[in-house]
């Protein structure tokens, strides 16, 4: 999704997001290994729940950061295109 709005993206939570994505990636690698090893389905499902939780928390952090910075800027400058982009992104996220 391209960014046509005019403000700079300075995300305050970049380090936290990168750490959480690394954690989710580690969980997903563990799931792949577990499946390859023929591990118990309940164990695999528990690990998948950890992946989903890590990704959900990452989405939450990004959304909060976006609301606090990008959306505030969009409202202040009357940038309705950015608000439309946010609505589309939320729709995709909620599917």
Main attributes of the structure:
95 residues; mainly alpha; 78% helix
Q: How are the elements arranged and paired?
A:
Blueprint: H1 14-36, H2 41-77, H3 80-93
Helix pairs in contact: 1-2, 2-3
Report on the architecture of this protein.
The protein has helices at residues 14-36, 41-77, 80-93. Helix 1 runs antiparallel to helix 2. The chain has three helices and no strands. By secondary structure, the protein is mostly helical. The radius of gyration is 17 Å and the shape is elongated.
Task: Report the average pLDDT across residues.
Answer: 86
Q: What separation lies between the terminal Cα atoms?
A: 17 Å
Largest sheet: none
Number of beta-strand segments: 0
Spans of at least 5 consecutive residues with low confidence: none
Overall shape: elongated
Reading the helices and strands in chain order gives HHH
Brief rundown of the structure:
By secondary structure, the chain is mostly helical. It contains 3 helices and no strands. Helix content is 78%, strand content 0%.
């Amino acid at each position: 999704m391209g960014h046509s709005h005019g403000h700079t993206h300075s995300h305050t939570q970049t380090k936290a997001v990168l750490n959480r994505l690394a954690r989710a990636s580690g969980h997903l690698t563990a799931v792949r290994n577990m499946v390859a090893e023929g591990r118990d389905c309940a164990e695999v499902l528990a690990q998948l729940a950890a992946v989903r939780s890590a990704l959900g928390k990452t989405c939450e952090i990004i959304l909060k950061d976006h609301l606090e910075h990008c959306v505030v800027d969009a409202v202040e400058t009357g940038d309705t295109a950015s608000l439309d982009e946010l609505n589309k992104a939320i729709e995709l996220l909620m599917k």
